[in-house]
Structure formats: C-alpha cells, structure tokens
Write a structure and sequence with these properties.
The chain has 17 helices and 14 strands. By secondary structure, the chain is α+β, with helices and mostly antiparallel strands. It has a single domain, classed as Cytochrome P450 (Cytochrome p450, Orthogonal Bundle), CATH 1.10.630.10. The strands form five sheets. The chain has a five-stranded mixed β-sheet with strand order 3-4-10-7-5. It has a three-stranded antiparallel β-sheet with strand order 6-14-11. Strands 1-2 form a two-stranded antiparallel sheet. Strand 3 and strand 4 form a beta hairpin. It is globular. The N terminus is likely disordered.
C-alpha cells in the first residue's frame, strides 16, 4: 500500500465499520465525549491504546473534538505508508505542536520541510561516527562522578531524576568544552529547571510555565557572552571549519550556519529533551532488572569482565536487554503527524484537521511480529532482525529521533557502568510491581520514578 491521494477510493460507509464524512473515511473507534476520551488517554496512555486495539483492531479513530480526530495505525504496512508519505501530506511539526512552548519555535521538533532538514543536518554529526567515542568517555565520567559524590553509604534515588542529572552533566560538558566553570554551572542549572518542566506530568504544565520562562531567561543570560565570544572568534578565523565529528563543535556549527542566540538556545533545549527521554529508559531498565533477577545477575557478571573505555567494548547480552526494554516501554508510545493535505493510508482517507498516529507501542505488541509480546524476552533480538516498521522505538520517517543510533549506545554505557560500580535494588523489595506509564509532555515515564537503592561496590571496574 502507498500513501498517495488517489490509490484507493474510499469504501462506502457501513455502520460499525468506518466513519465517512464527505471525502473522509476513517476507521471506527471508541465512543464518548471528546473530553472523556482525552481524559482517559491522558490518565492511562498504555491501557487506553490496548483497550482500543482489543475493541477495534489495528486501526481506530479517537475523536477529540476541538483537538482533532486521531487516526491510530499500528500494522507495518500502514506505518510504512505513514512514515513515507509525500512531502506536505503529513506534518511532524503539527503533530508536535504541544512541544513548541518548551523547545522553542526553532527546534527541529516543530519544523517541517527544508528548515527541519537543516536542523537535522546540524545535529546529526554530534550523534554519529567519531562523536560516539568522545561522548562515551563523558558519559562514563558523569556516572563515576555521581557515584563518587554519593559516597559508599547506600542511598535511595528516583532513577528518572538520577539518570537525568547524569545525562545533563555529560551533555553540558560535551556541548561546551571551551566553557569555564561559571558557564558550565549556569547552563547546567538553567537546563535543570527546563528539564523539570519536561518531566512534569501533563496536569502540571500550566503551573510550570512560569518556571520554564525563568529557566529559558537564565539560559539566555548565561549563553549570551559565550556566544558573542565564539561568534567573534569564528569571524576572526573565517577559514577554520568546525570538526563535524564532535558534539563540542555543535555550537560552532550553529554559529557558522548563521543561527541567532534564540535559535541556538532552542537547539540546546531540543538536545535536553532527547536526553530526558533516555533518562526515562534508564529508569525502565532498572525496573526490568528488578523484575528479572536472573537476567540482572547475568548482566552484572558479564559487566565485570569488560573495560567500557576500550574501543568497541560491549557487555554480553546488554544490547538485547536494552532493545527489549525499548520494545515494551518506548520513550514515546506514538508518533503524531498532522494531516497537511488529503492522504490515503490503507483503505482509509484522512483530510486536513485530522492527525495520523503511528502507535509504536501497539506495533511492538503485535503477536504476528513478536510472539508472546507481553513477555520480557531479550533473546528475541538474537533470533531475528526486525524491519524499521516493525520495531521503531525512536519513531520513523524524516522526523525520527536524530539520536536513534546514539541513544542505545549511551543507554548501554550508563547502565553498564552502574552494573559495574553499584549494587542496584528496588527501594522496597516487597513491591517491585509494574508501575503505570504516565504522560510527561510528549513522552511517557514510570509513574513512580523507579525508587532504587544504590550501593557503590568497594572495588572499581
């Protein structure tokens, strides 16, 4: 199936099979007041999606009234059509509009077309190739520093917050290798305030906007003299070109591309948002370690034999463990695209005003693709490879997360270092449970934060 406008004529409406309005033809879905459906989706995103799938199948429509019809797809053939739609037919910026007040109008999250691609070209080198080695060292340093600061006394941490602090520290150090202590401290504090907004539950967004604005103002004030200095230095050495293989040259690339201070700030906040999604996955990884102690013990044993600073270092079994966590708990359970012009996906026809939703969570639970999808089985990734429309934890198409290669790498490094240096256990061993996934602006996060008891081992790996 393709996603052209004229491939399929819309089928005649039959009660109980599809919704037909003019030229629009949509699959059936849950019935109810838009406000009630929105509340149900917000309160329990995973449960809501699973209930709709069980009742209506791979495709269904959730009518949110003034917020538009959300047409949800999860079969690989539909996801391929969605993510390869003709330019202008499906708009990632419109699907991500809720993020605009947070990441800013110049963020790749809220742009389409040439402007979006230009942003991706600026960001991509920081997450591929030689940049991985420099980033890996910074990530290990950040974990080691956090453990040294915590000392040998066992402590209980909110794993989402802990991982967010570690990744923030590493990211700021990588972005500003030429920055002095004052710059590093100021940027870290400001981004910490903004990150708190990213991790707030959706019901707290309105109340947190004042703090968000204050955090951005603080970030602007901190960045201004540094950016002015770098801009002048680059102008005086016009023949030099930044090394595209290091995140530390990201700011210079932005300056040489002619971006203003506000646009550079938006790119930095976008990087922060991506790292916050990774922090959530670190927490989910801890949860699954606690749920499956045999796997946990095997990974600890494997980690003890590996020097994570060595080129190509890999802990046996950890990559498949992380992949399975990302299957069951993708950072964003869906990818949203606003309909820019009429488009056909499978047998359905969508018009502007509606949204096409790629349900990543549901795609990862298709029994046709993943036998016994509810089971936690990392070995399934040793047994076969999956297409980009079957397994897609970072979304798809031109709006796929720019860190889709980097994120699994950093997750394995951070988790691997914790396995080497710490004994990790649930804060309450009698209540490992299975925490509900809650909305955090555009991603989902464990509602409990995964309280974790961390005890630093006496020997260092």
């Amino acid at each position: 199936m393709t996603s052209t406008e004229s491939e399929h004529a819309c089928p005649m409406h039959r009660p109980g099979t599809s919704s037909f309005t003019g030229e629009e033809c949509l699959p059936p879905g849950p019935v109810g007041a838009p406000q009630a459906l929105l509340a149900a989706w917000s309160a329990d995103p995973y449960g809501f999606l699973f209930r709709c799938r069980d009742a209506h199948g791979d495709c269904f429509t959730v009518d949110l009234g003034p917020f538009g019809k959300r047409v949800v797809f999860s079969a690989p053939r539909h996801l391929k059509a969605l993510f390869t739609a003709p330019e202008g037919a499906l708009l990632g910026a419109r699907g991500n509009e809720v993020l605009a007040p947070i990441v800013g109008k110049s963020s790749a999250f809220v742009l389409d077309g040439p402007a979006h691609l230009a942003c991706r070209r600026l960001m991509l080198p920081a997450f591929t190739g030689a940049a991985l080695d420099a980033s890996g060292s910074a990530l290990l340093d950040a974990v080691d520093a956090s453990l040294q600061e915590g000392g040998p006394t066992p402590r209980v941490v909110d794993m989402v917050e802990y991982a967010s602090r570690v990744l923030l520290r590493a990211t700021v150090r990588l972005l500003f290798p030429r920055g002095d202590a004052g710059l590093i401290e100021g940027v870290t504090a400001a981004l910490g305030d903004i990150g708190a907004m990213l991790r707030a539950d959706t019901g707290s967004m309105g109340a947190g906007m004042g703090g968000l604005r204050a955090g951005k103002a603080r970030l602007d004030q901190t960045l201004a003299p540094f950016l002015a200095g770098r801009r002048a230095a680059l102008q005086s050495a016009a023949s030099s070109r930044p090394d595209a293989s290091h995140m530390g040259d990201f700011v210079d690339r932005c300056l040489q591309a002619g971006l203003g201070d506000d646009a550079i700030r938006d790119q930095i906040v976008t990087l922060l948002a991506a790292q916050d999604a990774s922090a959530t996955t670190v927490a989910w990884c801890a949860h699954f370690l606690f749920r499956y102690p045999v796997i946990h013990a095997a990974l600890v044993s494997a980690a003890a034999e590996v020097d994570l600073r060595a080129p190509g270092a890999e802990i046996f079994g950890l990559s498949h463990f992380v992949m399975e966590v990302l299957r069951l708990r993708p950072p964003a359970p869906m990818a949203s695209r606003g309909v820019g012009r009429p488009i056909t996906i499978g047998e359905y026809r969508l018009l502007p005003g509606s949204y096409a939703i790629g349900a990543i969570l549901l795609a990862h639970h298709r029994v046709e693709t993943f036998p016994h999808p509810e089971r936690f089985e990392p070995a399934r990734f040793r047994e076969r490879k999956y297409s980009q429309y079957e397994y897609l934890p970072f979304g798809g198409g031109v709006h796929r997360c720019v860190g889709f290669q980097f994120s699994p790498y950093e997750l394995q490094l951070v988790l691997g270092r914790l396995l080497q240096r710490c004994h990790l256990a649930p804060a309450d061993a009698s209540d490992v449970g299975d925490p509900r996934a809650s909305w955090r602006v555009a991603t989902t996060s464990p509602s409990t934060g995964i309280p974790t008891k961390m005890t630093v081992r006496s020997e260092r790996a």
